Amino acid sequence: MKQIFVDIDKCTGCLTCTLACAAEHSSSKDIVGAMLEKVQPRISVEAVNGKAVPLMCRHCEEPTCVDACMIGAMQKDKETGIVSNENNDQSCIGCWMCIMACPYGAIQPNEEEGIAIKCDKCNGREVPACVESCHTGALIYVDGKTFAQEKLTKTAKALTEAS
Amino acid sequence: MSDCKTCPSVDNCYSAHEAVNQMQERLDEMGVDTVFTRYEKQQPQCGFGMQGICCQLCSHGPCRITPKASKGICGASADTIVARNLVRLTTHGAAAYSHHLEELAKTIKATANGKTPYKIQDEAKLREIAKVAGLDLNQTANELADQLADVILSELRKDSEEPLALLELFAPESRKKVWRELGVIPGGVHSEIRDALTKTMSNINTDPIDLLLTTVRLSIATGYTGLVGTVTLQDILLGTPELTESEADLGIVDPDTVNIVAHGHVPLVATAVLQAVESDEMIKYAKEAGAKGIKVYGSMCTGQELMQRKGTTASNYSGQLGNWLSQEHHIATGAVDLVMMDMNCSIPGMKSVADKFHTKLVSVDRILRMEGVKDNIDYVPEKVEEQAKELVKLAVDTYKNRDKSKVQIPDHKSAAVAGFSVESILGALGGSLDPLLDEVKKGNIKGIAAVVGCTNNRNGHDSKGLTIMKEFIKNDVLVIAAGCMSSGAEIEGLMLPSAADQAGDGLKAVCKALGVPPVLNFGSCVDIGRIGVAVTAIAGALGVDPSQLPVVASAPEYLEQKAIADGVFAVSFGLLTHIGPVPPVTGSPLVTKVLTEDIEGLTGGKVLVEEDPLKATEKMLAHIDKKRQGLGI
Amino acid sequence: MQYVIIGNSAAGTQAAETIRKYDNAGNIVIISDEPHAAYSRCLLPDYLAGERSEKTILFKSANFYDRNNIDTMFGKKAVDIDSESQKVYLGDGQTVSYDKLLIGTGSSAFVPPIQGIDEPGIFNLRNLDDAVGIKEAAKKARRVVVVGGGFVGLEAAYSLYSLGLEVTVVERLPQIVPGQFDAKAAAILRNDMQAEGIRIITGDGIKEIAGPSLWNRLFGKTGKGVLLDSGERLKCELVVVATGTRPNVGLTAKTGIKVNRGIEINEYMETSVPNIYAAGDVAETVDVVSGELGLSPIWPNAIVQGRMAGLNMVGETRKYSQMIGMQNSVEFRNVPAIAIGLTRTPDDYEEIVIHRPHLNYYRKLILKDDVLKGMIFVGDIRRAGVYAALIKKKVPVTKFKQQLFKESFGYSSIIS
After folding, report:
1. pTM of the prediction?
2. Per 3-state DSSP, what percentage of chain C is helix, strand, and coil (rounded to 5)?
3. Complex confidence, ipTM
4. Are residues C160 and C220 in the same domain?
5. Do A70 and C338 make contact, defined as CB atoms within 8 angstroms?
6. Which residue, B6, B161, B210, C296, is most buried by CB atoms nearer than 10 A?
7. CB A72 within 8 A of CB A79
8. Which candidate in B1, B3, B4, B6 is best for mutational testing of the C interface (most C CBs within 10 A)?
9. C25 — phi, psi (to 5°)?
10. Which structural domain range is residue C354 located in?
11. Cβ contact (<8 Å) for A14 and B64?
């Protein structure tokens, strides 16, 4: 299953990914429209000592947010693996238990609508909007094994070249 | 200062000054945003913007230079985009300085014709400058002043093809030679600005090197008009600075008086107001309102100007509150009744804080407008006497709304010496620079560092500037400060003779012998021109080009566009110019290389970018040593 | 393999689902004394307010039991267990044998011994049936007194207020939500609720609930009089009692299972008797913050314990020891609040506090030796889970202690 991985060194903090996320989840499907509709992005870029670090939902194998949801709105889809509180039998009640549970802080309260919002991997889009929009290649959409393999190769190569 | 753990400041204490931290705590409690908290919310900042590789000129954009897009849509490279952006920033600085100079020239003309409450203070300087400018000295001071003002105005308004007369008259010969070879001798400032703006419109001048040379040319134009020209005219009108003593920091605010703050750069209105508050009429008005009197304080450059004019404003000026970053915190004392804003550096955030108190903001400059500020008393030289009274009345009326229970004045203040200029230094040294130069030759003073410019939250309010100043004096380098850096040094007591104790043995001895502080207060941002005049004088006395001097310039907390013009001017003057925050040029390896390396071969000066204050001082000290060796001292 | 689960709420259903995932063949039966499909007790106040229906408070889909091949015995109460013969006895006389048994009987509302409390017109809010009753009674009521200023009481109060009733909450202790938040947090939440017009009385207990007959005699109309210890009298037509719960441990009486207030379980959800497990409100586990055994009647804990019990019941031996007893999230009116772990600072512990009640903002972190032991966030609850993880995993915070309250603090600050 493909996941969104982050190459922190490449992130410039331009926040384009957050704009693309908002656009994807708007009715107009473009950035300007999303801003007018006041759509809240579902991902964030955090600042650590002046470095920009994108924070993505990991769509965990055993999501603590699903455990915490007391209405069963938050579910992990058996096929896609996407963890979302939308489009399930029950709807989110805005109790914020999932926010209390997520150790990554990847879920945010939408105070206006009274629901929790989080990444839904763009609900079946071939490549999530944030990844597609990233200009520097800091966001990568690939399955875990491939990512690990590539990282292994890169590290090995660097070690060989250094010696 | 309570708890480091609950303070949401990014890396360090908000401010190097206790009083400002206290007021920040107060504003935190009130839930009021300030420049400090808004800075946090802006993180992380866009890397494209920070590298200068974002171009928003045309509707194809905004374009960024990225791993997958190495050129803008029009084909512009990172070099072009960065160089173009840099020129645009410089034009802002040039234009603003030009506004200040023009207001001054108009004021002098009006004064010469007897229409203002001012009078020509330094006739000797007027005659000296008039002589160099080739005016007929067989005239009254007023006639000369009127003509000199015209000369200045024509310098501003003439064509870019007509070389600046001020440069011709005042620049060192060796510098003129360098600039001529580079083809950067500028003409009339307004034309130069127009040319630069035209060049930087999309798809007109896309040659990064030519654009950089344009920046140099524009900065030199600014240097001789906006800096040297302004300083000279202000000395003539308001009096050349002489040594005076004053006070700084929020603790100087008097809870029992009507309190007016002059905030900005152009001291003309404030000068008239300082006259007005002495009048019986105004004192009576204030007393009737329940106050003991009326006091005028300064914030930023206007304050520095008022502080150093011994002959005029210094006598009843009440002291410097702080600088750019603390402008909101001055109001947070709850004891500021009126803030008079002129030209630049009045942030909209100040209005939000003022709204939480009774404080009124007023614009005293026709180009300054702020949302929510309805009171605009735009300076007109012929009307300023009446305008000053109107402003004082406004302050007293606002004082009546002051909630005494909300007044909270931090208990911190420091004395400070101001008024250093070439003239006052010469005066202190007995008429010649030789005593000073002897100490430099002997090595008691290793060199001179101009630590100038803005203050910046990127590095913690004033902390990097103060660190650098202290490091320099520890290493026997005499420090000259101007601009917001002066405010910082005043508040922390570095501008007192007693601060010599923090200096190295050599410098300490000299300072104690002369009774001067190790950090000399040259005044405001435009007084960087004064530093230029000083460096010219020293170079002349030693018979060398400024680039050979053991002198460095440092703007460790530069913020805005006037500072960019100042910085490039210093580089053009042949000085190693250190800047603290990383300027938006790193996206172009070419521009970065030119500014930090290649330009040294062209002008003798270059940019040193170093965020760490200790490393920066180390590098600058090494440079000073190198120059000393070059001079054989 | 015969898996028997007593209890059809968070723990029970989660266990059943987990067992079925690992064991396709075994028999799973869920016994519950309530006749309904698995609904979320937490949402009863929303049901009361009319914002949710019986259908939209279910937390498992309608075909959950069919899809997972679970037999159901609803509306039947389990009254006794014979751990020797491994049998469960139901109230109607039936017997159910088990190989593995999970007790997930939850807890019941505690009814304080107040005179007049067992008269009609007085309700708990623990079950759907309670909520149905209250809703019905509310139609004919104008004023309601809610006894107990804890979560359930205040949620009920707000729900009834939104139905148009005049509400008074009476709490015995000096603050509302005494078990969940500290005094400063409680004060902010109280201010917020009172701004709505709900009257909140604290520091006063109920002396007596005067019945309808006395009322009728005195005033000639139906209604209740709630007499407080202070002497004040409150008139109302409806009383809701929400003064806490007690674990339903009754059916273990003859089994010899170790019971304190709840059924003691180890890290494998096992009780002291082989093949019997317990999970949810009825169970006691070691709290990662206090290090002591205690009840943890919180929804996420019940879910996790249910899942763990299921895993261990099928032989997928799994240990779980990161339970925080106290974790609560609430937003009665406009101010959200989250509390995890300790809420009051013991003497030799450290606390970091920002208290701005005029801005409805309060943040407190409690630490011991640089390890987070508790947190309260009122007003701004973003990223609360990051701090919860620090508490659960006992991560030393020395390296980023100065940054804990920064606008920018989050997961990234920890891994950098």
Report:
1. 0.88
2. 30, 30, 40
3. 0.91
4. yes
5. no
6. C296
7. no
8. B6
9. -95, -35
10. 342-415
11. yes
